[in-house]
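Proteins fold reproducibly. Look at a concrete instance:
___
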Amino acid sequence: MMTSAQMKEILQARASAVENCLAVCLDDRAVPKRLNDAMLYSLLAGGKRLRPVLCLACAALCGCDGSPVLPFAAAIEMVHTYSLIHDDLPAMDNDDLRRGMPSSHKKFGEATAILAGDALLTDAFALMCRTRCKPESVLKAVAEFALAAGASGMAGGQLLDMQYTDLGAISEEELRRMYSLKTGAILRASCVCGALLADADAAAVTRVSRYGSFLGVAFQVADDILDVVADTESLGKPVGSDIAKGKMTYPALIGLDKSREYAKNQADAAIAALKGFSGQEADFLVALAEYTVIRAV
């Protein structure tokens, strides 16, 4: 068993490695200063770096040291950052704060924010191609992640989120599908890509995929709960913003207590998916799933 404190120590160490990679990932190309500033402003604004850490952890779980996988993991954070920049835009969620700082469009203007997001997304795939693993494994991982970020994944989930806003009642099945695309697809792909880069067998990839899928839903439901019960300083954006915008969330649909129970069930299912794995990496992923819901209690 791994304690929460031990898990957080490993999480921070891996997040720091990702931070170091992100800090220099644009250094070798000629980027207009304003665009470069906008990209780095959002890219280096902090955050848990959960998605790249999941990639590194799942690669290590399947027998590959984190160092060769680090460019791919950092690129995942670039894609995540692009999605946050675009989600904050007035045409989307219209958020003025992100991670306790002005959103990109508030700092640099809408046009530059759009271009910063576009550039981060596109440059991320170039960085993925620098991953020092088997070329065929890198190709599989790039294809997997592209699908998770595209129309059948995160982008499609964002569209559903917008369609469901102010719609009134939707079914729990519809809400879960939206979450599995908007949040879950990238979290699942981060896990799967780590396993693919480690050249894991099909059974291991399937178990890791299930872990990521359940973790993604648990994570988003926990975020829903925090939007109700947390404070603006700890959340990094205005509390209650989802409800104020008419967004459908699990607490709005089934209440706080049932939402907490549901998040725990999803985390438990993620942990069960790891059956057959052992060692520190498995313990880390178990502790991470547990912490995902503990933070929302």
